[in-house]
């Protein structure tokens, strides 16, 4: 993976979940010459494996600093990612592309970007990176360009740095890319996708399920490129996989 310019590049805060999209976004920030400060938030997600993936990615990328914050959203509830709600499996591409699934975490990207914004102010930094996409996604409202533009406006109105003339930019370099294009971009930047984690509901043996929306979108991206996903998946049994 391209190493961030930690010594002379302008600082940028990159939201890093350990997933395919956020890792690719980090690589883009590094390729653009930013000194990357990666932010990972443990917000009450059920599976710690993605946090371990974020640490592995940050170490491999040689980021300037990797900050982990704890913010437990389980008390709020409302999502299969933070509570005892079944994760949807084996949904078709059409089903994935319509409606907002129970894996949506209420206001998650607003909360995470707010934390990134607060850290950026202390760094004197005006560039935030987030790995959202409005293509090949699960219908989350906080992955749309309208949301990114609105948050950027808020950042410039709600901060001391903005009030003093600084101008924040929220970079969403994957916004118009499908999963195949995202994987292709990441591979061109040297991303090791074996370090990343995508699955919403890993098996008891610790393997990716291959059946949740996130796994299916990821697998579809690699398949369209004719590439093999380096992650190991739970073998499908008869009647599974759609």
Please describe what this structure looks like:
By secondary structure, this protein is of the alpha/beta class. It has one domain (11-225): 3-Layer(aba) Sandwich (Rossmann fold), CATH 3.40.50.620. Helix content is 36%, strand content 10%. The chain contains eight helices and five strands; from the N terminus they run βαβαβααβααβαα. It has helices at 20-31, 49-61, 93-96, 108-123, 145-158, 160-163, 179-188, 213-225, and strands at residues 11-15, 35-42, 65-70, 127-129, 169-171. Strands 3-2-1-4-5 form a five-stranded parallel sheet, with helices on both faces. Helix 1 crosses helix 7 (179-188) and helix 7 crosses helix 8. The longest helix has 16 residues, at 108-123. It is globular and about 60 Å long. It starts with 10 loop residues before the first strand and ends in a 17-residue tail after the last helix.
SSE layout and pairings?
Elements: E1 11-15, H1 20-31, E2 35-42, H2 49-61, E3 65-70, H3 93-96, H4 108-123, E4 127-129, H5 145-158, H6 160-163, E5 169-171, H7 179-188, H8 213-225
Parallel strand pairs: 1-2, 1-4, 2-3, 4-5
Helix pairs in contact: 1-7, 7-8
Give a brief outline of the structure.
The chain is an alpha/beta fold and 242 residues long.
Structural descriptors:
242 residues; Rossmann fold; 5 strands
Can you name the CATH architecture?
3-Layer(aba) Sandwich
Number of domains: 1
Overall geometric form: globular
Strand tally is 5
End-to-end span in angstroms?
Answer: 34 Å
User: Can you give the mean pLDDT?
Assistant: 90
Instruction: Work out the radius of gyration.
Output: 17 Å
Task: Give, in spatial order, the strands making up the sheet with the most strands.
Answer: 3-2-1-4-5
Strand content: 5-15%
The portion of residues assigned to helices is: 25-40%
CATH homolog superfamily: HUPs
Q: Would you identify the regions where 5 or more consecutive residues have pLDDT less than 50?
A: none
Output the structural class: alpha/beta
Order of helices and strands: EHEHEHHEHHEHH
Q: For the record, what CATH class applies?
A: Alpha Beta
Mind summarizing the main beta sheet? Answer: 5 strands, parallel
CATH topology: Rossmann fold
Distinct helical segment count: 8
